[in-house]
Each structure stands twice: as structure tokens, then as C-alpha cells.
């Protein structure tokens, strides 16, 4: 796979990955391309098929997995998620920095591939704040919220393991977290901008 170095954003559900990456993609329009994952979960209000996710049935997703169309896939909070090879190739064909938003299982599986991304973990300041953010977002049932909090506990432990992530950003103050994220990526951003001149 060629092009600028991709970026993997990971971290507990509700830590603020989408918030940060949407802001980054808006500020640096034409520099980043989002790798649109497949999922079997239902769309949330405002989410668009093909933009936020490819929303598919379990059968369709399994069919793609069986045909080896995914570089990684995982079950998270009772739903299937996966990164198709074509979602990455589509972005890389445009010479953009490909951003992947995946859970910790995705990180581990991507490490077995030749993608060679920058691995960034976005962490919440505490479990209490994470729970409040998830509840305030009003996207989860009590059952899915509890599953996400359980996955978050595991994620927060694993993110402390040395060598898993290139950088761990604690998203307490949004401005500070965003500035930190930009500072990690500025070299790659400038390379893409220079190539576009
Ligand atoms: N620094 C912050 N301070 C307060 N609220 C925040 C902060 N960052 C994000 N939020 C809010 O927390 C909620 C969760 O953020 P977001 O949806 O970006 O998380 P996520 O990591 O992408 O979650 P998921 O993995 O479930 O998609 C959102 O309602 C968002 O507006
Ligand atoms: N392993 C993968 N994880 C993914 C992928 N796309 C998203 N995710 C992760 O799932 C959870 C939940 O996401 P949500 O949109 O339902 O809140 C979150 O941690 C994402 O990072 C994927 O393709 N592979």
C-alpha cells in the first residue's frame, strides 16, 4: 500500500475520536480521507450510509469477510465492524492521509498488516467522565452503554501497555487535545500540502 502514512485513531467509545477527527478533517480539507468502515449496527440520527459507515446486514458483512475483503474486523458491543481493503485504497489512491477509527481489537489486527500507520489513542480523563459523555450523547440503550463501558475498561488498561500506541492523548479539554493531535500529525499534513502545491 502506498501514499502518505495512514493514521489509526482508537480509544474507548465516547472518548471523543469522532469529535476530534471531524474537526481535523474540516480544518485540513483535502488532506485527510476517512476510511469508511462497515458495521452491522443501526445508523444514529444524522449518520449517512457511505459517509459515516457502510451500514450492512450481518449476512452481507460475513460474506465480505469470507471473501477476504477486510483488512480487519471485530465484534464490538454486540455488533460487527470492519475496515474493507477498498475503503483504504480509495483514500490512498487520492494521495490523502487515510484516517481509520477502530477499536483496540482493530489496532491489534492492523499491526499484523503492512499498513504502517501512526497509532493514536484518545483516552477520557476518567471512567466517570466517559460515562457522562456517553449518556449525554443519548445514542445508547442501557445495555449497549454498559457493554461500551466494559470495553472501555479493557481499552484503558491496554492503552497503558508500552509500544501499543505512538501517542496517548487524554481528551479532557477539547482545545488542548485537538492541539496535541495536530502537533503529532503536522509533519505528515505538511508533506501532503507540499505535494499538492
Ligand atoms: N473534551 C470534551 N469535553 C466534553 N465533551 C466532549 C469532549 N470531547 C467529546 N465530547 C463529547 O463526548 C461525546 C462522545 O464523543 P465522540 O462521539 O466524539 O466519541 P467517540 O470516541 O467518537 O465515540 P464512538 O467510538 O462511540 O464513536 C460527544 O457527545 C462529544 O460531543
Ligand atoms: N475494529 C474496528 N472497530 C471499529 C471500526 N469502525 C468503528 N470501530 C470502533 O467501534 C466502536 C464503536 O463505534 P460506534 O460508531 O458504534 O460508536 C468504536 O470504538 C470505534 O472505534 C472498524 O472498522 N473496525
TrEMBL record:
CDD domains noted in UniProt: GMPK
HAMAP family for this protein: Guanylate_kinase (MF_00328)
Family from the record: Belongs to the guanylate kinase family.
Catalytic activity reported: GMP + ATP = GDP + ADP
Database matches in InterPro entries: GK/Ca_channel_bsu, Guanylate_kin-like_dom, Guanylate_kinase, Guanylate_kinase_CS, P-loop_NTPase
Name of the protein this chain belongs to: Guanylate kinase
Keywords linked to the UniProt accession: ATP-binding, Cytoplasm, Kinase, Nucleotide-binding, Transferase
Gene Ontology cellular-component terms listed: cytosol; photoreceptor inner segment
Subunit organization: Monomer. Interacts with RD3.
Class of enzymatic activity (EC top level): transferase
Main location: cytoplasm
Domain Guanylate kinase-like: 4-186
NCBIfam families (UniProt xref): guanyl_kin (TIGR03263)
Catalytic activity, EC: 2.7.4.8
Record carries keyword DNA-binding: no
SUPFAM superfamilies, per the entry: P-loop containing nucleoside triphosphate hydrolases
Lineage per the UniProt record: Eukaryota, Metazoa, Chordata, Craniata, Vertebrata
Gene Ontology molecular function: ATP binding; GMP kinase activity
Localization, UniProt: Cytoplasm, Cytosol; Photoreceptor inner segment
Amino acid at each position: 500500500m502506498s501514499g502518505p502514512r495512514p493514521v489509526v485513531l482508537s480509544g474507548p467509545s465516547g472518548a471523543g475520536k469522532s469529535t476530534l477527527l471531524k474537526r481535523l478533517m474540516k480544518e485540513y480539507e483535502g488532506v485527510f480521507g476517512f476510511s469508511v468502515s462497515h458495521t452491522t449496527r443501526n445508523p444514529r440520527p444524522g449518520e449517512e450510509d457511505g459517509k459515516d459507515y457502510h451500514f450492512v446486514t450481518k449476512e452481507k458483512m460475513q460474506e465480505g469477510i469470507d471473501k477476504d475483503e477486510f483488512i480487519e474486523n471485530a465484534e464490538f458491543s454486540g455488533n460487527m465492524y470492519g475496515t474493507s481493503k477498498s475503503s483504504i485504497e480509495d483514500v490512498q489512491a487520492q494521495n490523502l492521509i487515510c484516517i481509520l477509527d477502530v477499536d483496540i481489537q482493530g489496532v491489534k489486527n492492523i499491526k499484523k498488516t503492512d499498513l504502517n500507520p501512526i497509532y493514536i489513542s484518545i483516552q477520557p480523563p476518567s471512567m466517570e467522565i466517559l460515562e457522562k459523555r456517553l449518556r449525554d450523547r443519548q445514542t445508547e440503550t442501557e445495555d449497549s452503554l454498559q457493554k461500551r463501558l466494559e470495553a472501555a475498561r479493557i481499552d484503558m488498561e491496554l492503552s497503558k501497555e508500552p509500544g501499543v500506541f505512538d501517542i496517548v492523548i487524554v481528551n479532557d479539554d477539547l482545545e488542548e487535545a485537538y492541539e496535541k493531535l495536530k502537533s503529532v500529525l503536522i509533519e505528515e499534513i505538511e508533506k501532503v500540502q507540499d505535494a499538492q502545491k
